[in-house]
Structures are given as structure tokens and as C-alpha cells.
Design brief:
By secondary structure, the protein is mostly helical. It folds into three domains: about 5-25 and about 35-95; about 115-245; about 245-368, no CATH class. Helices cover about 70% and strands about 10% of the residues. It has helices at about 5-20, 40-45, 50-180, 185-245, 250-255, 260-280, 290-305; strands spanning about 305-310, 325-330, 335-345, 345-350, 355, 360-365. The strands form two sheets. Strands 1-4-5 form a three-stranded antiparallel beta sheet. A hairpin with a 2-residue loop joins strand 4 (about 345-350) and strand 5. Helix 3 packs antiparallel against helix 4. The radius of gyration is 56 Å and the shape is rod-shaped. Keywords: Coiled coil, Membrane, Signal, Transmembrane, Transmembrane helix.
């Protein structure tokens, strides 16, 4: 029996009770008096107590079963809600931990980038100062060239005058020597002394002019070499500045689940160039101290984040070293000697573990 039949039972009982309790009408027109229903009639139309109890028990048991079913359903839903709440709390905790870690990593990257940009700006202003000094040196060299040209012209005119005087003196001396050759050996000695003095004077003038020209050429060559080094250093610093100026949106749009070493590995090539340029300068040269301070600052900033740049310039090369090497034959070295002279890529360690092996240039003399 379904729930619809259960609802029909009270309706039938209600209708039956209504029919049983309907009063009789006193028909006055017929002239007769009609009394109420008899006890037999009431017993016939009234429901029995047993039937009412059966119906009540059936309805009560059906409602109890339905209530228990609903209670079980509610208990199942409550358990599912509790499990879902527990899973939601666990997921929320993990998400908060990941977000906190990513924010910390992003802040470290921002600090490293700020320090790198600060150092590169310092180097950029230093390069501008070097360029101004080079321009001043260029003006000074042009003035020196003009002075040398003027001095050379003056010396040449003096040499020509001395040559003319020497020729004239030689002609005069030759005439006198021809006349007094027999009786004037002392005069002949004087003539040779004058001639030797004139020749020595001419040679000294020529040597002075040639020396001035050679000094000017050497100075120009050093200036060109210094300008070339500064140009390469400026290009390297400009390239590093462009790489450091990465939009921060790239870090926000592509969060990494683990540490990303790509930026540090790319930066190792620039650090290697700065290390090589520093090894080519002496401590007394202009720019040595600034370049060394910038390089040490970069290494310190990277070390604070767990990274370490390792260079090998000036060390002996061994075949069992874990590295990539380019070899150049150099006869100026001792036979059998192999020395690391330049860095192409630095060795990079992260928390003591090597994540990139070094790449350098080795000068060697194997004796063949």
C-alpha cells in the first residue's frame, strides 16, 4: 500500500462518520413524528473500534518507516557534508601554504632584481664617466698630434738649415784642407770634429722625431684598445640591463611549483664576462675598483638566495675537471702547462649542489 492509499483511508472514515451522524428530518406535512436512529442503526453505520485501531496502527507504522528513512537520508547527507567540509578545509590550507610560498619566492626575486638593477645603473653611470674621460683624452691626443706635427716641422726645418750649413761648412773646410793639408794636421782634426759633431746632431734630431712619432702611435693604439674594451663592457652591461628589466607580470602569470633557475643561469654568462674583463685589468687602472665592487655585490646578492658563482681564471686545468673547455695554443707558456684564462659560463651552485658546470678558455703549450 502506497502513501496515496494511506491518505484515502481517513477520507473514507470521515465520510462514513458523516453519514452515520446525519439526523432524521421531522416531516410535519405527513402528520407523523419520526424519531432518531435506533441503536441497531447506529451500530450498523458506525466504524468498529478494531478497524479504527488497525487503521491508526497502519498509518503510524507507515509514517514511522517514512520518518526513519528520512532520518537515515539526513544522516547520510550530514556525513557527506562533514566529509566535504573536511576536504574543503584541507584544500584551503594547502592553497594558502602554496600562495604564501609563491609570495615569498616572488619577493625574493623582486629583491634580487632590484639589487641587480641598482648595480647595473651604477655601472652604467660609471661607463658614462669613462666615455667623458675618453673624449677628453681624445681631445688631448689631438692637441698632442698637432704639437708633434708642429715640432716635427720645426725639427725638419732645423735639419734642413743644419744640412745647408753643413754643406757650406764642408765646402769651406774642403777648400781650406786642400790649401793647408801639408802643414795643418791640427786644422784637419778640427774639421773632422766639426763634421762628426754635425753628423751626430743630425742623427739625434732624426731619432728624436722618430721617437716622438713612435710614442704617439703607441699612445693611439692603447687608446683604441681601451675604447674597444669599454665599448664591449658597455654592450655587456646594456644587455644585462635589458634582461633584468623583465616585466613582473611574467612572474605573476607563470608561477612555478618549484625553484626556477633559468634567470640565474642566463645571468652566469654576464658574470663570466665581467670576471674575464676584471682579470684583464690591473688594480691601478681606472674602473678596476668599481667593476670589482659590482661583481662582488652581484655574487653576494645571489648567495643570499642560495646561489653561488664559481670562477676558475688563473687556475691550472686538469683533464678530469667537470667542465666544457675551449683550448688555445700559447707558446709563451711553459711546456706542458695549461692555464684557464677566460670564463664563458660560470659554475653555478644552488644550496651546495652544482646546477651548471663551467665553460672556460684554456691556454696551453703541449710542446708540438
Amino acid at each position: 500500500m502506497n502513501f496515496r492509499n494511506i491518505l484515502l483511508i481517513p477520507l473514507v472514515i470521515f465520510c462514513t462518520a458523516g453519514m452515520a451522524e446525519e439526523p432524521y428530518v421531522n416531516d410535519m406535512s405527513a402528520g407523523t413524528s419520526i424519531s432518531g436512529p435506533t441503536e441497531e442503526q447506529e451500530a450498523m453505520f458506525s466504524p468498529s473500534a478494531a478497524f479504527e485501531g488497525y487503521v491508526n496502527n497502519y498509518v503510524s507504522s507507515a509514517m514511522t518507516r517514512e520518518l526513519e528513512k528520512n532520518v537515515r537520508t539526513l544522516n547520510g547527507l550530514s556525513a557527506q557534508v562533514a566529509r566535504l567540509k573536511k576536504d574543503l578545509d584541507s584544500t584551503s590550507n594547502e592553497l594558502n601554504a602554496n600562495v604564501k610560498k609563491q609570495r615569498e619566492d616572488l619577493q625574493r626575486c623582486v629583491n634580487i632584481l632590484a639589487e641587480f638593477k641598482k648595480n647595473i645603473d651604477t655601472n652604467y653611470f660609471y661607463i658614462k664617466g669613462i666615455k667623458k674621460e675618453l673624449l677628453k683624452m681624445g681631445v688631448s691626443i689631438e692637441d698632442s698630434q698637432k704639437n708633434i706635427s708642429q715640432t716635427s716641422s720645426d725639427l725638419q726645418s732645423k735639419i734642413d738649415n743644419n744640412r745647408s750649413e753643413f754643406n757650406l761648412l764642408t765646402e769651406q773646410l774642403d777648400g781650406k784642407v786642400q790649401k793647408r793639408l801639408d802643414d795643418s794636421s791640427a786644422f784637419e782634426s778640427r774639421v773632422y770634429g766639426y763634421g762628426t759633431f754635425a753628423v751626430i746632431l743630425i742623427v739625434l734630431c732624426i731619432v728624436g722625431v722618430v721617437g716622438a712619432i713612435v710614442c704617439c702611435a703607441v699612445l693611439l693604439r692603447k687608446l683604441v684598445s681601451l675604447q674597444d674594451k669599454c665599448r664591449r663592457l658597455e654592450e655587456n652591461l646594456s644587455f644585462s640591463h635589458q634582461k633584468v628589466s623583465i616585466p613582473m607580470s611574467a612572474f605573476k602569470e607563470n608561477p612555478a611549483s618549484g625553484p626556477d633557475h633559468s634567470f640565474i643561469l642566463k645571468l652566469s654568462s654576464d658574470v663570466a664576462i665581467m670576471e674575464t674583463n676584471l682579470s684583464a685589468l690591473s688594480e691601478g687602472q681606472d674602473g678596476y675598483r668599481q667593476l670589482k665592487d659590482s661583481l662582488e655585490s652581484l655574487k653576494k646578492t645571489a648567495k643570499d638566495s642560495g646561489y653561488e658563482f664559481v670562477g676558475y681564471i688563473g687556475q691550472d686545468y686538469h683533464p678530469n675537471m667537470p667542465c666544457d673547455a675551449d683550448f688555445i695554443h700559447d707558446e709563451s707558456l711553459e711546456q706542458g702547462k695549461s692555464v684557464i684564462s677566460a670564463m664563458i659560463k660560470m659554475q653555478v651552485n644552488y644550496h651546495g649542489q652544482m646546477i651548471q658546470k663551467p665553460h672556460f678558455v684554456v691556454r696551453q703549450n703541449l710542446g708540438y
